[in-house]
Amino acid sequence: MGSGVYRLGVFIVVYSKQGNKIEYLVLKRKLHWKGWEFPKEGLNENEKEEDAVRRGVKEETGLNIIGQIKKFNVNGKYRYPKKLPDRPGFIGQTYSLYAVEVGKGKIKMDSHEHSAYDWLEFKEAYERITRQDQKRCLFIVNSSNVYNKFRRLITKNGILIIGGKDENNNEELIKQVSPDEYVFHTASAGSPFVNVKGKANAEDLREAALFCARYSRDWKKNHNDVEVHKFLGKDIFKSRGMKAGTFGVKKFETIKVKKEDIERFNG
User: Are residues 103 and 224 located together in one domain of the fold?
Assistant: First the structure.
């Protein structure tokens, strides 16, 4: 398609909460391409992103936003599949990720762009959505909603890492770890337990080790290399008499996290 300009835009993950249940709004696209997506909006000239989010939610759902608009540090761009007569001069669109909570209700769709809608829990919504970039964005928003009591990091590869904030928070974190998931803790006492959710590669595990070291008492006290232990959920045990946030580990691998890497780490 050659070189050209990308239209500025936002992705808007719209969700509704009922007790512990979270449902996400997905729309069936019919304009320009066919598939399922969540709302997105192009920016008008001189329009701020949050104003575009408010306008997009109103135009594509008719619902009112509850509370604050959430902005995520996630950006990207995609090319249009073909030249679009109604987007002259543009070859694609950029996006910044936002999420909003709404009261669940009947959707007033823009029938020019969409032909149907559905409210789905995360797993179904993730499977229904067509585009991979939107799947990743939905995963990030859902992770924020479900694991908001923990520290969180999304790796460069899109893997979620969660960390405890104190001993009681560590206790909660370990309770939700799956047997085959990786967990990190510093060799010295006073570290958050850090859990890698899902399948991770070597790069993701390195980020998890850095994340663990960065928030440890060892680093805050000494500002030097930090020794971190990596182990599986199935190797963690709790004996009677162990205080809150303290666990035993049957076997582990030791990783030395370098001072200079921790200093450069922005997680």
Answer: no
